[in-house]
Amino acid sequence: MPIATVNPANGETLETYEAMDAEELERRLQLAEATFRTYRTTTCPERARLLNRAADLLDEDRPEIARTMTVEMGKPVGQARAEAAKCARAMRWYAEHAQELLADEEPAADDVKDSGGSRAVVRYRPLGPVLAVMPWNFPLWQVVRFAAPALMAGNVGLLKHASNVPRTALYLEELFHRAGFPEGCFQTLLVGSGAVDEILRDERVKAATLTGSEPAGRAVAATAGEMIKKTVLELGGSDPYVVMPSADVDRAAEVAVTARVQNNGQSCIAAKRFIVHTDVYDAFTERFVAGMAALKVGDPLEEETEVGPLASEQGRADLEELVDDARRSGAEVLCGGERPEGPGWYYPPTVLAGVTREMRIHREEAFGPVATMYRAADLDAAVLIANDSPFGLSSNVWTRDEAEVDRFVRDLEAGGVFVNGMTASHPGFPFGGVKRSGYGRELSGHGIREFCNITTVWHGA
């Protein structure tokens, strides 16, 4: 894929970029290593001052960078502004909390004595340059949720962003530079995906984090395993959205629409499989389909637009294949399901019923505004359907029965269980999945410690 800004609303190529050559890449790796030697010695308050400044600048730039994101990958501009605001809040959260999250820990006195020592402490130290391979769907947020904790921990960042969002990628490097971070603390590498393996093999790169597809995760994990380097992977998701009879069905259906079509349906944590108890299935489905069909699809730069185009022509083709396969295998299309006429990579909000295990869409992630409906006879059946997926990122459960909540929390195979609400990420909560959705955690204290050398310091008696 060329490194280029292509407007998905009309397919127009706005700008193409040359990939960095080997000489420039080497210069940047040298700079990252040299910068780390000194940046690692700065204090948390010093780093916090810089990160707060970056947050202030991002707030000032919000209208401009929101438009950039929308033009590059098609999200409605109001959602793009919200993403920028969320990034600024996350920066301030880490600036405020990093020092306590990374504070020295003292083992129990009895354990120190039993070890024959006089005192001991556990210290969190930075690793070095961390490679971040990031996707296009949340082109600011995905990067900031890595960069904010990594920089506060004393690491330096190397960003290999998706090739269709180069303007956003370059903006991020400029943002941290304008905020006063030393040159080399955060660098954007304009390279294709084929360069990732070589960069990860470089001894100066100490770890990697990737958000993206399962094949990309497998490739990075394989190389990192060979090189014995720490990785965090956040891959695909096909999150269940379970509705039980005690739920507020009207509210559940209303939230379900947003949960499915947020970011034009291109979100790993978007609810994709709607598993509804048979007692409320018809009522929920009627309201949900009506809500999906009523959404305004159009130019993402217009404020009233609720669903914009998919980010790429190939992405739309992949989504169409899943829907067509399900239709041929007997699924019922309750709304949508047909590509609209005209320019741009648009696809309508679509709901499929009668989905079976033999259909590809049951096993694969539908990355666009397509929902699948399942009827569950009881709680056990709902859990069985929910777990019948290779993914396990997050989950949504609607019930007012605390015993049911306990069962879902115990039995759902996912990195998160959101009760009576839709999945969302917040800097205070760990974020990540299980099964083929990846491993490791971003955000919270868990996220900032992922790329730290957890060091035991022991003193003899």
UniProtKB/TrEMBL annotation:
Main EC class the enzyme belongs to: oxidoreductase
Q: Where does the Aldehyde dehydrogenase domain start and stop, copy by copy?
A: 3-457
**A Pfam family it matches:** Aldedh
Keywords on this record? Answer: NADP, Oxidoreductase
Q: Name one GO molecular function term.
A: succinate-semialdehyde dehydrogenase (NADP+) activity
Top-level taxon: Bacteria
Asked if the keyword Transcription belongs to this entry, the reply reads: no
- EC assignment: 1.2.1.16, 1.2.1.20, 1.2.1.79
- Cleaved signal peptide residues: none
Please name the InterPro entries in this protein's record.
Ald_DH/histidinol_DH (IPR016161), Ald_DH_C (IPR016163), Ald_DH_CS_CYS (IPR016160), Ald_DH_N (IPR016162), Aldehyde_DH_dom (IPR015590), ALDH_GabD1-like (IPR044148), GABD/Sad-like (IPR047110)
Q: Specify whether Oxidoreductase is a keyword of the entry.
A: yes
Family (UniProt): Belongs to the aldehyde dehydrogenase family.
The name this protein carries in UniProt is Succinate-semialdehyde dehydrogenase/glutarate-semialdehyde dehydrogenase
Organism per entry: Streptomyces achromogenes
